[in-house]
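May I ask you to comment on the folded chain given beneath this request?
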Amino acid sequence: MTSIAVGADDAGASLKSHLAQYLRDKGYDVCDYGDGDGEDYPDVAVEVAEAIADGKHERALLICGTGLGMAITANKVPGVRAATAHDPYSAERARKSNDAQVLTMGGRVIAPQAATKVLDHWLASEFEGGGSAPKVEKMKAIDERHRREQAGA
């Protein structure tokens, strides 16, 4: 079964708890990286994103107030593609078109039942390749270029 990392700051703790239990009930291997107990979203996001980049988990779910800060921070880690989605179509396209391994949501933006539906659509979707494949390859090349530049600095 897919290993999914989850993490949240204070603003996302309640929704993260709800969704983590939902994932466990569906049989997913859930690894919790933050319960929101005084943790700032950049700290949680980078820890989870690095775990994704290192291949420790196939996917991750990050929750803060809006989902935006988590996505911005997670996307700073080379090899990670994080997307904020609060509707099923965006969640589906994040996977199918952009191969996003990380889904972010906002605990202050979406109700638990709606978040569950969004999560289901994201989990059910896989990268399609096709016309999106060259774009994802360009994203990967940008990551690689930045890795090389950082290594040489």
